Amino acid sequence: MKKIVILLCLFWMGFIFYMSGNNGTISHEQSTKVVNIIENAQRNQEKSQAENKDKAVSSSDSSQVNKNSINVKQEEASNLDHIVRKNAHAFMYMVLAILVCGALFSYNKSGKGMIIYILFICLFYAVTDEFHQSFIPGRTSLVSDILVDFMGAMIGLGLFYFSYYKIYKRNRL
């Protein structure tokens, strides 16, 4: 079991490295796919809501509404792309923190001191990942991404500790 957890942790680190090694075009295409899925779901919801309501818009107002809605939709897509990218960062490091916790706990390493080690490992990996990303065409290295990665790691650490101490330990007593 110990080796499996370590291998999962190393695999996930490799996956993060692989994803950050994609050039800007590929990275943008990946996040655009997610944005399109979200937008399609939103459109379907709006369409079903519109069918349930009887709205009457005059034809003279509709052209102005369409121009405004196009600008708003482009801005929303850009904002949504940003949100998707930042959430992907946080999610990747949340999973990494959970796997690092599992790896250390499988070797009976736990306690308050381990929290610092776990966060250091995740922060160090985030910094090296952003450094690596600075050499990839079309990608940028941002301190804000490191902070988002670290926040994701803290969430993962919190989830692991909550589930371990509140659920697992309580059920064993």
Automatic annotation (TrEMBL):
Composition skew (Low complexity), residue ranges: 57-68
Regions of compositional bias (Basic and acidic residues) in chain numbering: 44-56
Cell wall biogenesis/degradation found in the keyword field: no
Annotated TM spans: 90-107, 114-136, 142-164
Keywords: Membrane, Transmembrane, Transmembrane helix
Superkingdom per UniProt: Bacteria
Pfam families (UniProt xref): VanZ
Domain named VanZ-like: residues: 6-162
Annotated spans, Disordered: 43-68
Name of the molecule in the record: Teicoplanin resistance protein VanZ
Organism of derivation: Clostridium beijerinckii (Clostridium MP)
